[in-house]
């Protein structure tokens, strides 16, 4: 027998599974404690008009700073919060915090036209969700048409309850954005059944838009789908001026990404009319198209 490092017995695959389950449980408990201790905050990323770069909306994104773990990315903790159900309470905190921030910008006269909040499948599965949203909007004094609820295709793929919830939110006057559009199971099919106003074209199609190839073809097709259906298309994950210029050439009029602005705390937001520096130069021939 070799030396036994782990409490006198050998590690097995079952031990690894136990560890994974243990870590999931610990992370879940830390999330619970973190919500009580105020470890979460929101950051806001601009969504701009092409080609001038004027901020038309912002998307709120949640951040978690755990005292020992440090910054844990939402891609890591949101799925855990969905599995242990905490997303319902966390999501309500996120929505109220974003609404309070938007109301504050409004009072300062610097509110963008709209603000987006990400909502997960588990929240949409709650039949009371539209009532909760309506109550938070009323309590913070925000008109429902200012809010954009961002849902992923997978969140509504289950059908039934989630689709009904989306319908009810839309009936309240809230806009619906399909997030990471094009990466789900039934992207185009969903457009037939779901009330949607905004398509957020996934960054995987934006990444290689300047190169000839399948991504550029898909980015081109998706703007045609959006325009044909009268939807607003937002290109996600725009990192370079070249991508922005090409997207504009393809017909995109809304974009989001590090090229225009990283997610920042609400206090760093300046004005809806402030033009970000990284706008697209449309070239002289296109200048009549300036918005
Ligand atoms: P998402 O809703 O698609 O958000 C866009 C993500 O892309 C954000 O990551 C954002 O920081 C990142 N991003 C923005 N511009 C660029 C760019 O130019 N390049 C690259 N590479 N990335 C860019 P983040 O904040 O880490 O969030 C990841 C995902 O976690 C979100 O994807 C969303 O699905 C989820 N999430 C974030 N905040 C919330 C929330 O408040 N509630 C819920 N339910 N989910 C959230
Ligand atoms: Mg989003
Ligand atoms: Mg997205
Ligand atoms: Mg995403």
Automatic annotation (TrEMBL):
In this chain, the stretch annotated as Disordered covers 263-284
Where the record annotates domain EAL, the positions are 24-277
Q: Which domain of life is it from?
A: Bacteria
Q: Which portion of the complete protein is shown here?
A: 460 to 750 of 757
Q: Which species expresses this protein natively?
A: Actinoplanes couchii
Q: Output this protein's name.
A: Diguanylate cyclase/phosphodiesterase
């Amino acid at each position: 027998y070799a030396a036994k490092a782990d409490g006198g017995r050998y590690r097995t695959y079952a031990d690894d599974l136990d560890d994974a389950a243990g870590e999931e449980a610990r992370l879940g408990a830390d999330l619970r404690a973190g919500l009580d201790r105020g470890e979460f905050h929101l950051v806001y990323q601009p969504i701009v008009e092409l080609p001038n770069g004027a901020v038309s909306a912002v998307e709120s994104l949640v951040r978690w700073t755990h005292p020992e773990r440090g910054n844990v990315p939402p891609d890591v903790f949101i799925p855990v919060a969905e599995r242990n159900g905490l997303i319902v309470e966390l999501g309500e905190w996120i929505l109220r915090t974003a609404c309070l921030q938007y109301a504050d910008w409004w009072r300062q006269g610097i509110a963008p036209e709209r603000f987006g909040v990400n909502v997960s499948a588990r929240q949409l599965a709650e039949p009371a969700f539209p009532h909760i949203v309506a109550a938070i909007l009323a309590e913070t004094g925000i008109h429902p048409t200012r809010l954009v609820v961002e849902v992923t295709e997978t969140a509504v793929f289950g059908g039934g309850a989630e689709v009904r919830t989306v319908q009810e939110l839309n009936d309240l006057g809230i806009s619906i954005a399909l997030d990471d559009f094009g990466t789900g199971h039934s992207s185009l099919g969903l457009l037939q059944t779901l009330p949607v106003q905004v398509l957020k074209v996934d960054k995987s199609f934006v990444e290689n838009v300047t190169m000839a190839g399948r991504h550029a073809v898909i980015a081109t097709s998706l703007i045609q789908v959006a325009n044909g259906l009268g939807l607003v298309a937002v290109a996600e994950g725009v990192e370079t001026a070249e991508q922005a210029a090409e997207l504009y050439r393809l017909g995109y009029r809304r974009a989001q990404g590090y090229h225009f602005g990283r997610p920042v705390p609400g206090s760093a937001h300046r004005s809806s009319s402030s033009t970000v520096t990284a706008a697209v130069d449309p070239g002289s021939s296109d200048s009549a198209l300036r918005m």
